[in-house]
Design brief:
Layout: E1 13-15, E2 57-59, E3 62-67, E4 91-94, E5 98-101, H1 102-122, E6 127-131, E7 137-144, H2 151-174, H3 194-209, H4 215-229, H5 236-246, E8 256-257, E9 273-274, E10 290-293, E11 308-314, H6 320-323, E12 331-333, H7 337-347, H8 363-372, H9 376-382
Parallel strand pairs: 1-10, 2-8
Antiparallel strand pairs: 2-3, 4-5, 6-7, 7-11, 9-10, 11-12
Length: about 400
């Protein structure tokens, strides 16, 4: 299928919470500390198997095996906190949210619930330290939750910290972190669907925590209604068609996993929001994408970062002196993520091209180019102006 992209204005619907996520904290119900969340059992970094972007992918050293994880909405089944074999996981396409990785989405729902429970339990206790599993370094979460912090703000805080955790996974895999030894995960770092799926799961999790229904029931219903609002496709064939429209442009199946060249397009422009990548349809128009914002402020307008610090004592894989030349130690926190994302953006365009000067092109052109790539070659291909 020939892939044509026509210049169009991308209407970005900025929502702090998708659809019904905007709530009145003074009147909205929030769940208390649940009995089925074990505070002493920190969830694994990956609760459910996640998916590589694309289909008909091959694995290095394993002949005659193709990776195909496309599903339909009929395959989803009920959500279960911390996972269940009955859950349907895989990727599915939506016209307003792009490709959605259901495993990523459900993992962040559960992380949001776990961290919300930890935060509730930490209110009024002063500094609480939560050691986390190593991931490209020793991770630690420091909480200092005032006793008067409302449950609604605790939900927002849980969403923000969960996003930091998920963002660190993308950053760390770019620099060589992996779950399986000798199996690098850089090929999937910042792929077009990962961050959006993560943030979507966080929003679903936050809304489920406001529901009076049992958590799993609420999460199941909200997943379904959210996918409907994103105009999810109804058949697996439509997701295959969307993949076919971007093969050899966003990904390729001519290389084998875990080669990083499997992924051709990445999106590290995700510090405070995530914009979905939309495949133009056969009428050459682009559906109005829904951009998701990261929760940054409490209901009183306070920075959520004032209530916690997420630190990582980096290992040797990071070129610390290059990225943080004046840093005397290898310790970083969530406030340093912007520097790392800028480094990744620069590294990911190392094919001899230049960035587009944002101030010299129209805002809609910036959005259009940044959705796909930010280099001179790609900008010329998509018909927008380039600053040399």
């Amino acid at each position: 299928m020939k892939f044509n992209l026509y210049k169009a204005t991308l209407y970005s619907i900025k929502l702090l919470l998708l659809l019904a996520f905007v709530v009145n904290p003074a009147t909205t119900y929030a769940q208390g500390i649940p009995d089925d969340v074990d505070l002493d059992k920190i969830p694994p970094r990956i609760i459910r198997a996640c998916c590589a972007f694309g289909y008909d992918l091959k694995l290095w050293g394993v002949p005659f095996v193709n990776i195909d994880q496309v599903i339909s909405v009929d395959d989803l089944n009920e959500h279960h906190y911390m996972g269940n074999k009955s859950e349907g996981i895989g990727t599915i396409y939506s016209h307003k949210g792009g490709f959605i990785d259901i495993g990523h989405l459900q993992d962040q729902i559960d992380w949001t619930r776990y961290l919300y429970t930890v935060i509730l339990d930490s209110r009024g206790k002063g500094e609480v330290i939560l050691p986390l599993r190593n991931e490209a370094g020793r991770k630690t979460l420091y909480l200092n939750i005032p006793a008067q912090l409302t449950s609604s703000d605790c939900i927002l805080l849980a969403g923000k910290i969960t996003y930091d955790f998920s963002l660190w996974h993308e950053i760390s895999t770019w620099f060589g972190a992996s779950t399986i030894p000798l199996m690098p995960e850089k090929f999937s770092s910042f792929s077009v669907e990962d961050v959006y799926s993560n943030l979507l799961g966080i929003h679903v999790g936050m809304q489920a925590l406001h529901s009076k229904l049992p958590f799993n029931t609420a999460a199941t219903e909200i997943i379904n209604s959210t996918l409907d609002s994103l105009d999810v496709v109804k058949t697996t064939q439509e997701t295959y068609d969307a993949y076919d429209a971007v093969i050899h442009k966003w990904y390729t199946n001519k290389k084998r996993i875990p080669r990083k060249s499997v992924t051709l397009k990445r999106n590290p422009d995700v510090l405070n929001s995530s914009r979905p990548w939309i495949v133009p349809n056969q009428t050459n128009t682009i559906s109005n994408p829904i951009t998701l914002d990261v929760p940054l402020l409490s209901t009183k307008g306070e920075l959520l970062t004032g209530f916690y610090q997420f630190t990582i004592d980096l290992n040797h894989r990071f070129p610390m002196e290059e990225i943080f030349p004046n840093r005397e130690s290898s310790l970083i926190n969530q406030d340093d993520f912007g520097v790392l994302l800028n480094r990744i953006a620069a590294d990911s365009t190392n094919h001899g091209t230049k960035y587009i000067g944002r101030e010299q092109i129209k805002p809609e052109e910036i959005s259009l180019v940044r959705m796909y790539c930010c280099c001179e070659k790609c900008a010329q291909y998509y018909g927008v102006k380039v600053v040399l």
